[in-house]
Design goal:
With 251 residues, this protein is of the alpha/beta class. Helix content is 35%, strand content 14%. The chain contains ten helices and nine strands. The chain has a five-stranded parallel β-sheet, with helices on both faces. It has a two-stranded antiparallel sheet with strand order 1-9. Helix 7 links the parallel strand 5 and strand 6. It starts with 12 loop residues before the first strand and ends with a strand. This is HAD-IA family hydrolase. It holds the Pfam family Hydrolase. One of its GO terms (molecular function) is hydrolase activity. InterPro entries: HAD-like_sf, HAD-SF_hydro_IA, HAD_sf.
C-alpha cells in the first residue's frame, strides 16, 4: 500500500486551500499510557499490597513482556490460545478485556483480582499523559476551522480521558472500533469519521503511529502522516508539522 505521507516543503507540494479535517489516532499519537511500573504500582497501592522491590521489578518486567498493558508493548510471545482473540480484540469491549486480562494472567500476581484491577486502571485518565504539543496542535486546528476526529482501535470509551486532560473541546467526533465492530486498517472506520465531519476523504489527513493500522486510511484516499510511538519526554514536538501539512496538497 502506498502512503501519501505529506511533508511540508517536499517536492511536488503546492499551496492549496487547507485540509477540511484531520483524524488522529489515540495511543502513541495524542496520548501515551503510563509505564508498566507505574501501572502495576498504582494497582498494588490501591489494593494495599506490598511487594519486595526485586519481586516488584520482576513482575513488572513479566507483565511488559506479556504485553498485558493496553497501549504498551506488544507481547513478546503470544500464547496460542489467545492468538485468535488477539487479532479481533478491538472489535468489542468484551474481547478487548478478555485479550488483555488473558495476557496478564500469564503472570502470577498476589491476588487473582488484580488482573481485572490492572485492566480497569488503564482506562482511567490518570493512566494517560498527552504529548506536550497535543493541546497546541488541536487548539490551532480548531482556530483554523479544521475538523478534528479521533479514530482509535480500542475496547473502551476514551472520551473521559480527553475531558480530564482538557482536550475534548477540540475534538468534533470520536470513532472507536469497539463501538462499530470494525477495527483499523479497515477503511470503513475512517469513512465513518469522514462522514461525521462532513469531509471528503481526499481532503482529510490521518495522523497515527502505526503504518499497518493507521495506514488503512490511504485506501480511502486520505493523506497519511506518521509519528513515532515514543515516551512523552522523548517526543515533545512531533505533532507540530501537522499544522503545516493541513495547508499543503499533493500536486
Amino acid at each position: 500500500m502506498a502512503f501519501r505521507d505529506q511533508v511540508a516543503g517536499a517536492p511536488g507540494m503546492r499551496d492549496d486551500p487547507p485540509m477540511a479535517a484531520v483524524l488522529f489516532d489515540f495511543s502513541g499519537t495524542l496520548f501515551r499510557v503510563e509505564s508498566t511500573e507505574s501501572w502495576l504500582r498504582a494497582v498494588l497501592d490501591e489494593a494495599d499490597i506490598a511487594l519486595e522491590e526485586r519481586e516488584f521489578a520482576a513482575t513488572a518486567r513479566a507483565l511488559e513482556e506479556a504485553g498485558a498493558l493496553p497501549g504498551g508493548a506488544h507481547p513478546v510471545r503470544l500464547p496460542g490460545e489467545l492468538a485468535g482473540l488477539w487479532e479481533v480484540r478491538d472489535r468489542s469491549a468484551e474481547q478487548h478485556r478478555a485479550a488483555y486480562t488473558g495476557l496478564s494472567r500469564q503472570v502470577p500476581l498476589p491476588d487473582p483480582a488484580l488482573h481485572d484491577a490492572l485492566y480497569d486502571r488503564h482506562m482511567t485518565p490518570a493512566a494517560w499523559t498527552p504529548y506536550p504539543d497535543a493541546a497546541e496542535v488541536l487548539r490551532a486546528l480548531r482556530e483554523r476551522g479544521i475538523g478534528v476526529g479521533v479514530v482509535s482501535n480500542i475496547g473502551w470509551d476514551l472520551r473521559p480521558v480527553f475531558r480530564a486532560h482538557g482536550l475534548d473541546p477540540y475534538v468534533d467526533t470520536y470513532v472507536l472500533s469497539y463501538e462499530h465492530g470494525v477495527q483499523k486498517p479497515d477503511p470503513r472506520l475512517f469513512a465513518l469519521a469522514c462522514t461525521a465531519l462532513g469531509a471528503d476523504p481526499e481532503d482529510v489527513l490521518m495522523v497515527g503511529d502505526s503504518r499497518h493500522a493507521d495506514g488503512g486510511a490511504a485506501a480511502l484516499g486520505c493523506a497519511v502522516h506518521f509519528v513515532d510511538h515514543l515516551p512523552v519526554a522523548d517526543r515533545p514536538d512531533a505533532l507540530l508539522p501537522v499544522l503545516d501539512l493541513v495547508g499543503r496538497r499533493t500536486a
